[in-house]
Design goal:
Elements lengths: L1 E3 L10 E3 L6 E4 L8 E4 L2 E4 L9 E3 L8 E4 L2 E6 L8 E2 L4 E2 L25 E6 L5 E2 L3 E6 L5 H15 L6 E3 L10 H15 L4 E8 L7 H6 L9 E5 L6 H16 L5 E4 L4 E6 L10 H14 L3 E4 L9 H5 L5 H20 L10 H5 L5 H8 L8 E5 L9 E5 L5 H11 L3 E6 L11 E5 L2 H6 L6 E2 L3 H4 L1 H16 L5 H4 L15
Length: 504
C-alpha cells in the first residue's frame, strides 16, 4: 500500500490505491471537480467533490458491478458509475445476505516476526498469568447495589491508591429480572471479569435477593483464583459500606505485596477493537494494530479479536487462516449464529455502518469488515471463544461479542485481555476495565483530541508502517509497564453486558 503522491507535472492531489484489483482509490485530501489524480497506473479527472477519506472511481463501473477495495468486493453498484465520480451511498449497496454455507479452504500460513528480547514490567500471578495493572475491582452482582459498589471503591481508592494501582467499581444494571441463557451470560461475563490478572483482588457485592446469586457466581470462578476474591451480602450487613471497606482493606494488604517484574511479549494478552471508524481506519490504524498482533502472537503471546457483525463480508479471510477444521467449524458456528440472531429480530445482517462511519467514508459492511479484520494481522486463528469464556489457547482467538464498543471491550477484558488496542477515526473518550490504548487513524484527530488519543497512526502515511510500528510497540510496552492511558488519566472506566433475553 503506497499513496500516490502529487504528480510533478499535474500536481494531482494524493490518493491511495490499495490493491491492483481495486477499481476505487481513497482521497487523502478533499478532491474537487476538474482535478487530475494518478492512481493504479492511470490518470483520472475528478468529476464530483470527494471528501477526504472517501472513494473515487478509477474506471467506469456498470450497474450491479462489483466495487473493489482491499482487493475484494465491498458491494455492488446500484447504478452506472463513471470514472472520477464519488462512490458512496448514492451508488453503492451491500451484497450481503443471510446464513452462509462455508467451505474449509485453508491457506498456507505467513511467517510471523519472532521477538524474544522485548520485555514489559508486569505482575506475575500465582497461576503464571501476567497483569499490566495491580488493582482491586469491586463488581456488583446486580444493578441494585451498583452505587454501593461505587461508594466502596471511591473511599477505598483514596485509602489504598499508594499501595495498589487503584480501586475501581464497575456498575451495570443487570443481574435480576433475567432468565435462562440471558442470566447465565451475565453470570459468566462477571465471573470471567473477576478472573482477569489485572485485578490483584476482587470484591463481589451482592444484594441478597437477586437472580444472580453470589454463590452461583463464585462457583464459576476457578477454585485456585477464589483466594483473591471476597463477597459481600448487602442485605445481611448492618453497614454494607463499612463491611465492604473492611474486605477491600484485606485484599489491598495482599495485593500490595506484588511487584512488577520483567515479562516477555508471550505473557501479553491484547484485545483488538475498533470504534468510531472512518475511511482511514482500514488504511492506517487497523493494519498497524495487525502488525502488533503479529509481533505478540509471533513471540508466543495472545490476541483477541471480537465484534462478530463487523467481520461479515470478510469472514472468509479469517476462516482461511484457521489452525484446523475444528477451529474452522467453531468460527463458522459463531458467525452464522450471529447472523441468525439478527434475522430472528427481523433485522438484516448488513445493518451497519453507523452514521459516523458513513460520514467518514465507509459505505458498506463489507468495506467496514475488510478494514476491521486487518487488526488481526496475518496470524493463524488458534481458537474461538463464546461470550463470557476465558482464553486458554495462546495465539489469535476470535471472541463472540457484538460490535458495540462497551459490550465488546468488556467481553475482551473478561476473556483475559490485559490491554486493549482501540483504533478510531472519529474519537471516543470511553475506557474499559483494562488499559485501553486509543489509536487515531488520522493525525487531525490525534491533534484535536489529545485528551482522548494515545497514539497517532496517521503518521503511517508519511513515515511508513515499519517505523510507526516500532514506535507503537514501544508505547505498548510502556503502558503495559505502568504508564497511564488517556482514558485512565480521565477516569474513564466502564463495563456493559450483552443482554439478549426478556426482562421480567
Amino acid at each position: 500500500m503506497h499513496p500516490n503522491t502529487r504528480d510533478e507535472q499535474t500536481d494531482a492531489p494524493a490518493v491511495l490505491h490499495l490493491h491492483a484489483r481495486d477499481n476505487v482509490a481513497i482521497a487523502l485530501t478533499a478532491l474537487e471537480p476538474g482535478m487530475e489524480v494518478a492512481a493504479g497506473g492511470r490518470r483520472v479527472t475528478v468529476r464530483q467533490p470527494i471528501p477526504r477519506g472517501h472513494k473515487l472511481a478509477l474506471e467506469p463501473i456498470a450497474p450491479d458491478g462489483d466495487v473493489r477495495k482491499f482487493g475484494w468486493p465491498i458491494g455492488r453498484a446500484t447504478r452506472a458509475i463513471d470514472a472520477g465520480c464519488h462512490v458512496h451511498t448514492v451508488n453503492l449497496a451491500t451484497a450481503l445476505g443471510g446464513v452462509t454455507r462455508y467451505l474449509y479452504t485453508p491457506l498456507a500460513g505467513t511467517p510471523l516476526p519472532y521477538d524474544e528480547t522485548t520485555r514489559f514490567l508486569g505482575y506475575r500471578r500465582g497461576d503464571g498469568r501476567v497483569g499490566t495493572r495491580n488493582e482491586i475491582w469491586v463488581i456488583p452482582t446486580v444493578g441494585c447495589v451498583a452505587r454501593t459498589a461505587e461508594k466502596i471503591a471511591a473511599i477505598a481508592h483514596a485509602r489504598h491508591r499508594h499501595v495498589v494501582d487503584g480501586v475501581f467499581a464497575f456498575h451495570h444494571p443487570h443481574g435480576c429480572s433475567q432468565l435462562g441463557d440471558d442470566l447465565a451470560g451475565t453470570r459468566a461475563l462477571l465471573a470471567a471479569l473477576a478472573c482477569n490478572p489485572n485485578a490483584g483482588g476482587v470484591l463481589l457485592v451482592g444484594l441478597g435477593c437477586e437472580s444472580n446469586q453470589l454463590d452461583a457466581l463464585m462457583a464459576e470462578i476457578p477454585a485456585p483464583l477464589r483466594a483473591r476474591v471476597r463477597t459481600l451480602h448487602a442485605q445481611a450487613e448492618a453497614d454494607e459500606i463499612e463491611a465492604g471497606l473492611a474486605a477491600v482493606d484485606g485484599l489491598a494488604a495482599v495485593a500490595a505485596l506484588a511487584r512488577r517484574e520483567p515479562a516477555p511479549l508471550s505473557d501479553l494478552v491484547l484485545g483488538l477493537k475498533c470504534g468510531g471508524s472512518d475511511g482511514f481506519s482500514g488504511l492506517t490504524a487497523n493494519p498497524l494494530v495487525g502488525r502488533m498482533c503479529d509481533r505478540v502472537v509471533g513471540a508466543g503471546g495472545t490476541a483477541l479479536l471480537t465484534e462478530i457483525p463487523e467481520i461479515f463480508g470478510a469472514e472468509h479471510l479469517l476462516m482461511a487462516r484457521t489452525r484446523d477444521h475444528a477451529v474452522f467449524d467453531a468460527l463458522v458456528g459463531v458467525v452464522n449464529d450471529f447472523k441468525r440472531y439478527f434475522l430472528s429480530q427481523g433485522q438484516p445482517v448488513s445493518e451497519n455502518p453507523s452514521p459516523g462511519n458513513l460520514d467518514g467514508g465507509i459505505t458498506t459492511l463489507e468495506e467496514k469488515s475488510l478494514g476491521a479484520v486487518q487488526k488481526a494481522g496475518q496470524a493463524p486463528v488458534a481458537g474461538v471463544l463464546r461470550y463470557g469464556e476465558r482464553v486458554r489457547i495462546k495465539g489469535l482467538n476470535l471472541l463472540e461479542a457484538p460490535g458495540n464498543d462497551a459490550v465488546s471491550s468488556t467481553a475482551l477484558a473478561a476473556a483475559g485481555a490485559t490491554m486493549i488496542l482501540f483504533t478510531t477515526g472519529r474519537g471516543t473518550p470511553l475506557g474499559f476495565p483494562v488499559p485501553t490504548v486509543k489509536i487515531a487513524s488520522n493525525s487531525a484527530l490525534a491533534a484535536r483530541k489529545s485528551g482522548w488519543i494515545d497514539f497517532d497512526a496517521g503518521a503511517v502515511l508519511t513515515q511508513g508502517f515499519d517505523a510507526v510500528a516500532d514506535d507503537l510497540l514501544a508505547r505498548i510496552v510502556s503502558i503495559a509497564s505502568g504508564e497511564a492511558t488517556a482514558a485512565e488519566r480521565a477516569g474513564e472506566r466502564e463495563i456493559a453486558i450483552w443482554k439478549r433475553g426478556v426482562t421480567l
